[in-house]
Structures are given as structure tokens and as C-alpha cells.
């Protein structure tokens, strides 16, 4: 499995994920909720589909158990690692512990798997690496990812 979704800008990603930990879970994670927690840029809206692909939100935007597990700061990095290993499984076939130094291989994997342009593959790799910075691949997986 290798998600196609990506963020045009990852500038606010860490801050959005921090807000998920700090606030209460909404009944539905929507564009209105995102704006309500302070993220009004049109570039931030794509985080919703990325969260769905990670298994943090159901198809209708309802927060899943994984979302709730992520809200625990003592477990969040492990939860993210588990979600990444599921949504980006093919990247972990390239390297058990991918890092920014694997960027070219990661970009190449997106290009070949999804037949996308260099620009889109770069954005996909950038999104993955930004999410990876929020994960601890050494953490024990606290929850099974379900989509």
C-alpha cells in the first residue's frame, strides 16, 4: 500500500497535529473544524484526506480510535509510526527505517507506483517525510490501523 495523497505545503502539519493532541476530538473533522482551530489556508484542507489515509479519520470524517490514541502525548509518536507503516507500507519495503537521506528513493517509489510527475512525487515524498518527523519508528505499535 502506498497512499497517493499529499500536502502542497507541510508548513502547518506539525501545528495541526499538535492541536489534535491538545484539543478535544470533534464529532467530525471537517474544513470548518480545521478553520475553527486556526488553520484557514486552503493548503491546510488537504490534511483531512491525509488523516483519512492514515486511518485517523473514517471516510465521513469521524475520528477513529487511532485519532484518539494519537491524542495521548506519551503514545503519539508510536501511533504515527504505526499509521505510517500501514499507509506507506511500500516505502518501508525500500528501507525499514527511512530518513530524509532516502528522499530520492522515496520520490522514485511514488513516481513508479502512481505514474506521477516529478513535482507531484516530490510533494508526496515531502508529505511522507513531514509525517515521519512526527513518528518514532522504534516505539512499540500501540494500536492496529484499520481503514
Q: How does the major sheet shape up? A: none
Total strands: the figure is 0
Distance between the termini: 12 Å
Number of helices: 8
* DSSP strand content: under 5%
User: Structural class of the helices, strands and pairings?
Assistant: mainly alpha
Summarize model confidence as the mean pLDDT: 93
Please characterize this protein's 3D structure.
The protein has 147 residues and is mainly alpha-helical. Helix 7 packs across helix 8. The mean pLDDT is 93.
Topology:
Layout: H1 13-22, H2 31-36, H3 47-54, H4 65-70, H5 76-87, H6 89-94, H7 103-114, H8 118-132
Helix pairs in contact: 7-8
Key features of this structure:
single chain; 147 residues; globular; mainly alpha
Concise summary:
By secondary structure, the chain is mainly α. It is 51% helix and 0% strand. Helix 7 packs across helix 8.
